[in-house]
Amino acid sequence: RRMIWFDLDLSATPYKTLKYHERAVRSCRYHGRYPLMASASDDGAVHVFHSMVYNDLMRNPLIIPVKILRGHTINPKTKLGVLSVTFHPTQPWIFTAGGGGRVFFFPEI
What is the DSSP string of 8-30? Predict the structure, then answer.
């Protein structure tokens, strides 16, 4: 249900708790090239965030919700939604795998 953002340069306690999902969060990934982060959950949704950490320690990290990607159905037997999310290495594309045995490709985020 929650993702917790830690800024270990600032403190050992969580910087921000992100409560965007209705059910358990199964996967969270950061893009290697773009300031993007995605989280996948059992509610069948993938949330995409613009997330940026600055070199200047006086500036707080920036976390902005961008888009909610839907398409996966929740498996009625296991109650699992989206199990995994990953980014393409060079493009801002997302690939997801769900509990229903399907893989989705989201080219426009």
Answer: TTT-SSEEEEE---SS-EEEEEE
